[in-house]
Amino acid sequence: MDPVSIATVTNVSAQVSNIPMLSGTNFKVWKETVEIVLGCMDLDLTLWSDQPTATPENPNEVKIEKWDRSNRMCLMIMKHSIPEAFWGFITESKSAKKFLEEIQ
Predict the structure, then answer these.
(1) Domain of life here (predicted)?
(2) pTM of the complete model
């Protein structure tokens, strides 16, 4: 692994580690931190925009791929900072935006 990749992995890990574990009393702080971390990592697209759709005239392949990656990463990062005890109360969502609304 080259030095740039190692630095990037370390940076991602450090940023994700800065997200506090969600508890019953810290949702506002947790959400703010999640939004800041995802924004700094340029992964917050899915939180602010709806999933693009393809049409015969405009396949939107690049936009769809970028949105899908953002959504997957957001879901993984958010789930990482939620205790397993909460998982039973949250339905499995395919959208990070809906997942965040459900947690709220």
Answers:
(1) Eukaryota
(2) 0.81
